[in-house]
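A reminder from the course coordinator: this example appears on the midterm review sheet, so study it carefully.

Given structure:
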Protein backbone atom coordinates (compact mmCIF):
# COMPACT_ATOMS: atom_id res chain seq x y z
CA UNK A 1 0.00 0.00 0.00
CA UNK A 2 1.18 3.52 -0.65
CA UNK A 3 2.61 5.21 2.41
CA UNK A 4 0.66 8.10 3.90
CA UNK A 5 3.87 9.60 5.24
CA UNK A 6 5.56 9.39 1.85
CA UNK A 7 2.87 11.30 -0.09
CA UNK A 8 -0.45 11.82 1.65
CA UNK A 9 -2.26 13.07 -1.47
CA UNK A 10 -1.23 10.00 -3.47
CA UNK A 11 -2.23 7.83 -0.51
CA UNK A 12 -5.75 9.28 -0.51
CA UNK A 13 -6.08 8.89 -4.28
CA UNK A 14 -4.81 5.31 -3.99
CA UNK A 15 -7.42 4.47 -1.36
CA UNK A 16 -10.19 5.99 -3.49
CA UNK A 17 -8.99 3.96 -6.46
CA UNK A 18 -8.91 0.73 -4.43
CA UNK A 19 -12.42 1.42 -3.13
CA UNK A 20 -13.72 1.77 -6.70
CA UNK A 21 -11.75 -1.28 -7.81
CA UNK A 22 -13.23 -3.43 -5.05
CA UNK A 23 -16.73 -2.19 -5.87
CA UNK A 24 -16.21 -3.14 -9.52
CA UNK A 25 -14.37 -6.41 -8.90
CA UNK A 26 -15.27 -7.69 -5.42
CA UNK A 27 -14.04 -11.18 -6.22
CA UNK A 28 -10.47 -9.86 -6.50
CA UNK A 29 -10.35 -9.35 -2.74
CA UNK A 30 -10.34 -13.12 -2.27
CA UNK A 31 -6.86 -13.47 -3.76
CA UNK A 32 -5.12 -10.73 -1.78
CA UNK A 33 -5.12 -10.24 1.98
CA UNK A 34 -4.68 -6.46 1.79
CA UNK A 35 -7.65 -6.17 -0.57
CA UNK A 36 -9.67 -8.51 1.62
CA UNK A 37 -8.95 -6.36 4.67
CA UNK A 38 -9.98 -3.19 2.82
CA UNK A 39 -13.09 -4.90 1.47
CA UNK A 40 -14.04 -5.98 4.99
CA UNK A 41 -13.46 -2.43 6.23
CA UNK A 42 -15.70 -1.04 3.48
CA UNK A 43 -18.49 -3.42 4.45
CA UNK A 44 -18.06 -2.77 8.19
CA UNK A 45 -18.05 1.01 7.70
CA UNK A 46 -21.07 0.95 5.39
CA UNK A 47 -19.23 2.43 2.40
CA UNK A 48 -19.47 -0.55 0.08
CA UNK A 49 -21.95 1.17 -2.24
CA UNK A 50 -20.45 4.66 -2.04
CA UNK A 51 -18.38 6.90 0.17
CA UNK A 52 -14.88 6.55 1.52
CA UNK A 53 -13.16 4.54 4.21
CA UNK A 54 -12.49 6.23 7.52
CA UNK A 55 -8.73 5.95 6.95
CA UNK A 56 -9.14 7.98 3.75
CA UNK A 57 -11.35 10.51 5.54
CA UNK A 58 -8.79 10.81 8.35
CA UNK A 59 -5.95 11.41 5.90
CA UNK A 60 -8.04 14.02 4.08
CA UNK A 61 -8.79 15.70 7.41
CA UNK A 62 -5.06 15.84 8.22
CA UNK A 63 -4.38 17.41 4.83
CA UNK A 64 -7.19 19.94 5.33
CA UNK A 65 -5.81 20.86 8.77
CA UNK A 66 -2.39 21.47 7.26
CA UNK A 67 -4.01 23.49 4.47
CA UNK A 68 -5.72 25.74 7.06
CA UNK A 69 -2.47 26.18 8.95
CA UNK A 70 -0.57 27.13 5.79
CA UNK A 71 -3.25 29.61 4.76
CA UNK A 72 -2.57 31.43 8.02
CA UNK A 73 1.22 31.35 7.82
CA UNK A 74 2.43 31.05 4.23
CA UNK A 75 1.84 33.93 1.79
CA UNK A 76 3.09 31.97 -1.27
CA UNK A 77 0.66 29.18 -0.41
CA UNK A 78 -2.21 31.67 -0.14
CA UNK A 79 -1.27 32.98 -3.58
CA UNK A 80 -1.49 29.50 -5.10
CA UNK A 81 -4.89 28.80 -3.55
CA UNK A 82 -6.21 32.22 -4.62
CA UNK A 83 -5.10 31.49 -8.16
CA UNK A 84 -6.90 28.14 -8.33
CA UNK A 85 -9.98 29.17 -6.30
CA UNK A 86 -12.22 30.22 -9.22
CA UNK A 87 -11.67 26.88 -10.98
CA UNK A 88 -12.31 24.97 -7.75
CA UNK A 89 -15.54 26.89 -7.20
CA UNK A 90 -16.73 25.92 -10.69
CA UNK A 91 -15.75 22.30 -10.08
CA UNK A 92 -17.54 22.20 -6.72
CA UNK A 93 -20.68 23.74 -8.22
CA UNK A 94 -20.87 20.84 -10.70
CA UNK A 95 -20.84 18.17 -7.99
CA UNK A 96 -23.45 16.84 -5.62
CA UNK A 97 -21.36 18.32 -2.77
CA UNK A 98 -20.76 22.00 -3.59
CA UNK A 99 -19.59 22.68 -0.02
CA UNK A 100 -16.66 20.24 -0.14
CA UNK A 101 -13.32 21.63 0.95
CA UNK A 102 -10.83 23.04 -1.54
CA UNK A 103 -8.46 20.16 -0.82
CA UNK A 104 -11.14 17.54 -1.43
CA UNK A 105 -12.02 19.39 -4.64
CA UNK A 106 -8.39 19.21 -5.80
CA UNK A 107 -8.24 15.50 -5.03
CA UNK A 108 -11.61 14.91 -6.71
CA UNK A 109 -10.39 16.75 -9.80
CA UNK A 110 -7.24 14.65 -10.01
CA UNK A 111 -9.20 11.45 -9.48
CA UNK A 112 -11.73 12.35 -12.16
CA UNK A 113 -8.95 13.27 -14.59
CA UNK A 114 -7.27 9.92 -13.90
CA UNK A 115 -10.55 8.19 -14.78
CA UNK A 116 -10.93 10.26 -17.96
CA UNK A 117 -7.39 9.41 -19.04
CA UNK A 118 -8.07 5.71 -18.49
CA UNK A 119 -11.00 6.15 -20.88
CA UNK A 120 -8.62 7.91 -23.32
CA UNK A 121 -10.74 11.06 -23.19
CA UNK A 122 -9.31 14.47 -23.96
CA UNK A 123 -9.11 17.30 -21.46
CA UNK A 124 -9.81 20.92 -22.27
CA UNK A 125 -6.86 23.31 -22.05
CA UNK A 126 -8.59 25.00 -19.08
CA UNK A 127 -8.84 21.68 -17.28
CA UNK A 128 -5.17 20.96 -17.99
CA UNK A 129 -4.23 24.28 -16.35
CA UNK A 130 -6.42 23.56 -13.32
CA UNK A 131 -4.93 20.06 -13.02
CA UNK A 132 -1.44 21.56 -13.08
CA UNK A 133 -2.38 24.07 -10.37
CA UNK A 134 -4.10 21.43 -8.21
CA UNK A 135 -1.10 19.14 -8.58
CA UNK A 136 1.23 21.95 -7.53
CA UNK A 137 -0.92 22.70 -4.49
CA UNK A 138 -1.16 19.05 -3.42
CA UNK A 139 2.55 18.49 -4.03
CA UNK A 140 3.37 21.40 -1.72
CA UNK A 141 0.95 20.13 0.93
CA UNK A 142 2.29 16.57 0.71
CA UNK A 143 5.89 17.73 0.95
CA UNK A 144 5.08 19.89 3.95
CA UNK A 145 3.22 16.98 5.55
CA UNK A 146 6.21 14.70 4.89
CA UNK A 147 8.63 17.27 6.34
CA UNK A 148 6.43 17.70 9.43
CA UNK A 149 6.30 13.91 9.93
CA UNK A 150 10.07 13.62 9.57
CA UNK A 151 10.52 16.13 12.41
CA UNK A 152 8.37 14.07 14.79
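Designed residues:
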Amino acid sequence: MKSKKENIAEYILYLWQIEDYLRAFPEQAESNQELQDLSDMMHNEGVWESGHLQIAKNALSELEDLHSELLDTEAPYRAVIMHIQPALNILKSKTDRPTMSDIEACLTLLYQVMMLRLQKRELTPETEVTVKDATQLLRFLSKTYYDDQAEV
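The radius of gyration is 16 Å. The chain has one domain: 8-151.
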